[in-house]
From TrEMBL:
Lineage of producing organism: Bacteria, Bacillati, Actinomycetota, Actinomycetes, Micrococcales
Region named Disordered: 301-335
Organism: Homoserinibacter gongjuensis
UniProt family annotation: Belongs to the MscS (TC 1.A.23) family.
Coiled-coil spans in chain: none
Protein name: Mechanosensitive ion channel protein MscS
Boundaries of every Mechanosensitive ion channel MscS domain copy: 127-191
Broad class of where this protein is predominantly found: membrane
Length: 335
């Protein structure tokens, strides 16, 4: 021990740079250790959920109970937020230690400067504190998670990341919105619980309403009974009746309660089948104004079409007809 002290005193002017180097290396090591612990905890929880559900791919959780999906999303989001908090805290502490080591006599003056800066930036820093606290509470209370389709007011789309200050939202057009957590005053989350596919079908005014409603309901029930769609539909489809009447058409509403991630897929398949059913019945749909997707309707389509997976059909290769052998050409000049 005495030899180590003597060696340290013999460094002389090199003591300060060495201390600064040790502080930087220590901060990096501590950050790596804490990051490893956070990543391991997140990985352990996610792997446990997957193993409990008997799956390997996170995307397969879409067809599992909602609680499993929310645990995975919430854990990953919390892991990202904690990583940001740990990094920020370690950097601040390391900077303060480096300053106090480099300028040991400036501790009192540094305290006064810190107090003056704190008083001057108090009103500006409150927005940063508001962003951080609001982001933490949003994640802790499970208001949103990575992968959720949400409407935050300023932007609507899929949550790509939740930071300590900023939440990134990707809308249906591919635009990435950076929304400050402190500016989020309400959250509409359509990835929690269940969703409802609503189809408003306009039929000619002179159509037999009872017949049309029976055709619509029969088509929807046939879809709900098929194995590859049954797991995505939570309740039997319902015809709610006439939604509106005009001089050209009568609008009939069909609703289907689905899993949150399957609303658009079910709605698209239903529209296609209803169109074929009405064509077969000789009911021609009237021409109406085009519909522009906005809000949740547009956000829900951001992932594109994701029809249920089915087993591949066997491919039977047809044998190729045998080619006739080529006749050798006779050399020129031969008789």
């Amino acid at each position: 021990m005495d030899g180590l002290v003597a060696w340290w005193e013999s460094l002389g002017a090199w003591q300060v740079p060495l201390r600064v180097l040790l502080i930087i290396v220590g901060a990096i090591v501590i950050r790596l250790i804490l990051q490893f612990v956070i990543n391991r905890a997140v990985r352990g929880i996610v792997t446990g959920v997957k193993k409990k559900q008997g799956i390997d791919d996170t995307q397969a959780l879409v067809a599992t109970p909602l609680a499993a999906v929310r645990v995975v999303q919430r854990t990953r989001t919390l892991g990202g937020v904690l990583s940001g908090v740990v990094t920020t805290a370690i950097v601040i502490v390391a900077v303060l230690l480096v300053i106090s080591t480099t300028f040991p006599n400036a501790a009192g003056a540094f305290s006064l400067i810190t107090a003056a800066i704190g008083a001057g930036l108090g009103f500006g820093a409150q927005n940063i504190v508001k962003d951080v606290l609001n982001g933490l509470f949003m994640v802790i209370e499970d208001q949103l998670g990575v992968g959720d389709v949400v409407d935050l007011g300023p932007a609507t789309g899929v949550v790509e990341s939740v930071g300590i200050r900023i939440t990134d939202i990707r809308d249906v057009n591919g635009t990435l919105w950076h929304v400050r957590n402190g500016e989020i005053v309400r959250i509409g989350n359509i990835s929690q619980g269940w969703a409802r596919a609503i189809i408003d079908l306009a039929v000619p005014y002179e159509s037999d309403i009872d017949e049309v409603e029976a055709l619509i309901l029969t088509t929807a029930l046939e879809l709900a009974d098929e194995p590859k769609w049954k797991r995505l539909i939570l309740e039997k489809p319902e015809v709610w009746g006439i939604e509106s009447i005009s001089a050209e058409a009568i609008v009939i509403r069909l609703v289907v309660k689905t899993r949150t991630s399957a609303k658009d897929d079910v709605a698209r398949e239903l529209r296609a089948r209803l169109k074929r059913t009405l064509d077969t019945a000789g009911i021609r749909l009237p021409a109406l104004n085009s519909i522009v997707l906005t809000g949740f309707e547009g956000a829900g389509s951001i992932r594109g079409a994701r029809p249920p997976k089915t087993s591949p059909l066997p491919v039977v290769e047809q044998p190729r007809p045998a080619r006739a052998p080529k006749t050798p050409k006779s050399p020129k000049g031969a008789s």
